[in-house]
Amino acid sequence: MLKKILVPNFMVTSVADIDLARLRKLGVRGILLDFDNTLVRWNGSSLPNAIAKWVKAAKEAGFSLCIVSNAITRRLERVAKRLGIPFVPQACKPSPIGIYRALKRLCLQAYEAVMVGDQLFTDVLAGNCSGLHTVLVRPPKLYEQWWMKGVRYLENLITKYTPRLQAAC
Length: 169
Ligand SMILES: [Mg+2]
Fold this sequence. Notes:
Blueprint: H1 2-5, E1 10-12, H2 20-25, E2 30-33, H3 49-60, E3 64-68, H4 74-83, E4 87-88, H5 97-106, E5 113-117, H6 120-129, E6 133-137, H7 148-160
Parallel strand pairs: 1-6, 2-3, 2-5, 3-4, 5-6
């Protein structure tokens, strides 16, 4: 059970690598995006061009998008404005509160949405427990708080014994 709720449907190295056609085939209409280490580098606000382009393509393809972040920062507001998508701050992941707020805002059912994020114990757990599809973003190099090392160690243990995590989107 624990294994199941900690296993994402897909794993990618960047949001820009997510195949929109494949999401569409799964019946996905809405994309919920984590913020730090997913859209921007941890504690950063500079949006990589490839990700901005991917968001634009997703919007043009008819997907509804929303940033769902545990953060409450001006950075979040600025990036959401730049991308022209709504955001839910203080999402309290892994609780489903923020995800439900985002789904309500996008007028979608859980099975029509995907949660995309870099952490198993917040993004993937919250997404799976709420009935969404999930994509784990694992950049080759992570910059974050020193204490995240322990969390990443545990995540890597799970990744190691979870073959499905190796699937590419
Ligand atoms: Mg994150």
